[in-house]
Amino acid sequence: MTSVRVNELISVAGQPDAAGFAAFAADGFAGVINARPDGEEPGQPGNAAEKASAAAAGLAYSFVPVKGAEITEADIRAFQLAMTQAKGPVVAHCKSGTRALTLYALGEVLDGRMQPKEVEAFGQNLGFDLAGACRWLEKRAGQPARVKAFFEPRTCSVQYVVADPVTKRCAIIDPVLDFDEMSGATGTANADAILAHIDSEGLTVEWILDTHPHADHFSAAHYLKGKTGAPTAIGAHVTDVQVLWKEIYNWPALETDGSQWDRLFADGDTFEIGGLKARVMFSPGHTLASVTYVIGDAAFVHDTVFTPDSGTARTDFPGGSASALWHSIQAILSLPEETRLFSGHDYQPGGRHPRWESTIAAQKSGNPHISAIDEAGFVALRQARDRTLPKPKLMLHALQVNIRGGRLPEPEENGRRYLKIPLDAL
Ligand SMILES: N[C@@H](CCC(=O)N[C@@H](CS)C(=O)NCC(=O)O)C(=O)O
Ligand SMILES: [Fe+2]
């Protein structure tokens, strides 16, 4: 397999066969990046076979599969990470090399080492048509909301800062408070990374938003309110979730009026983040209280739909409903086709890099929980999958914090805080 040398760090190539991997190693490459989703054409080796061929040739291997029209910033950043992790020159391939070169060039532009107007000629000089990369950059320039995602690998959660680039006002969505269940240690490394970003970009926080009371991690909303003074908010039906879990935790003193947040959003409520218009959609199904925040051209759908290759969120938590989730998803799908969807988790199917962004169009064409399926089919599929899933490791830990807006339990007289775990309650 011949590769095209871009520079001392990277070359790009079309699809290699098994022998190609040994040739790459002989040519002095340290790693291979596979930018091709499995199953594009018959005879394609695929991720598992390529991973094995790379291991046999002593090459590092990363799986960063992309479809040309659906490239996201996460893909570009994962591609860059794969390059740095290889500890030597890499060869990146897709079917022809175009997508691989597109990912590289877009990373150079995002980091300011290449100008958007230089991309086309850069491609031509190497024999590739980078028109898709140019379209990607034009589209990005026209997006009113700037979205920065923070992936938290311990719980596969995605936290967001969404900003109005004009007024530099922003909202934080679904921040994570760190918790190590083995030692009982809590921490703020994730939340502090968000604060550092906000500081370095010169942003002012207007809102700290949660999409739902999370069942797998603690919310850092309360911590971040203490740091920024910004108001916290969640969907108004959080009060229903409080009632449910008040009973499970046997906490007669728990206020179930949502007073732990500064604002409770009802379906259709609107608010502003600088010049960005934001609207709340009630999106129950995963929980009784889930909401979607539609902010400019971006919708923060959290645990409704995941990326198309990951399907949808589970519906078997207390108060969950597959039918309700179906209707919530239909409402989301009625947003304009080009709306960017940002999901709240990514469980990295097939060991691919973490991704969280999609579009209505991509969901309709590529998500098997959505395309060519009716409500009954979805409910059957969802419930069958839910029956195979163990409860989240931290569900009983997390809800007692999250139904209080991310507040840890009050310290006892020795100054120490304790969690309460109900036995045989679920
Ligand atoms: N293994 C994870 C499971 C987390 C989980 O259940 N996540 C929810 C969202 S909060 C979900 O929808 N998962 C879908 C799936 O696992 O397929 C854990 O223990 O934390
Ligand atoms: Fe969730």
Structure characterization notes:
This protein has two domains: 3-141, Alpha-Beta Complex (Protein-Tyrosine Phosphatase, Chain A), CATH 3.90.190; 146-402, Ribonuclease Z/Hydroxyacylglutathione hydrolase-like (Metallo-beta-lactamase, Chain A, 4-Layer Sandwich). It has helices at residues 18-26, 47-57, 73-85, 98-110, 119-126, 131-141, 189-200, 221-228, 238-249, 322-333, 360-366, 375-388, 395-402; strands at residues 3-5, 10-13, 31-34, 60-63, 90-93, 146-152, 157-164, 169-173, 176-180, 185-187, 204-209, 218-219, 232-235, 263-265, 270-273, 276-282, 291-295, 298-302, 340-343, 357-359. α1 packs parallel to α2 (47-57), α3 packs across α4 (98-110) and α10 crosses α12. The strands form four sheets. A six-stranded mixed beta sheet has the order 6-7-8-11-13-14, covered by helices on one side. The chain has a six-stranded mixed beta sheet with strand order 15-16-17-18-19-20. The chain starts with a strand and ends in a 24-residue tail after the last helix. It contains 13 helices and 20 strands. Glutathione binds next to loops.
